[in-house]
Structure formats: C-alpha cells, structure tokens
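[Backbone geometry]
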Amino acid sequence: MFLGVLEKDHETRERLMAPYNEWLDEREEGSAGKDVKSVATRVQRCKDQMATMAESWSNLEDIEVVGAVMYVGNDPAGAQTSGIFGGSENVRGYIDDNHVNIRQMLSDYTTVLR
C-alpha cells in the first residue's frame, strides 16, 4: 500500500489509509460507547485482531506468530497501548523466563520507526 511513498510523507500515508479508517469506523459504530476514532482504541483493536490470528495459526497450522503493534505518532495514549502479541503461551513463557523488558524493547523500536 505504501510502496513508493516516503516514510515522512504523512499526508500521502493518511490519504491512503482514509478508506480503511472509514471502513473501520463504519464497522465499529455503536461498540459499547467507546470512542471509535481514538488512537488507543484502534491500537488495542489491532493488537486483539493480530493476537487472534496468531493464535489461530498456532492452533491450526503449528506455526508460531510473534509480533508487535506500535503506534509511532504523537498521541501518548496510542503509544501506551502499543504491545506485543503471540500465538501461544510459549511467547509469554519465553518473555517471563528470560526477563525480557518489553517496555524498553517497544520504546527502542518505536524510536527507530519514527
């Protein structure tokens, strides 16, 4: 979708994302009184969707999916909602057993991606 669009070209990126965001808003209308346009809500929904898909791949195909959802904009609530996801408890076990500092890892990645 962003092929050939510069990372810093936020205007073009927002224009390209507009149809998706409109579609998402239409699907989320009336969802338990939540502000469907808030960045934090979108980041959380993205994490939930990715985690569900990762779990399906793990359960059905024996493929472990691990990833992160990071908000790289300027909204502090969006940044606080960033997080990782995985397809099984093996991911959480690895993080716990190895004392991985997820907060620092996400901060480092967010800094690089901004």
Q: What stands out?
A: DSSP finds five helices and two strands in the chain. Helices lie at 10-28, 39-61, 76-81, 89-97, 102-113. The chain has a mean pLDDT of 83.
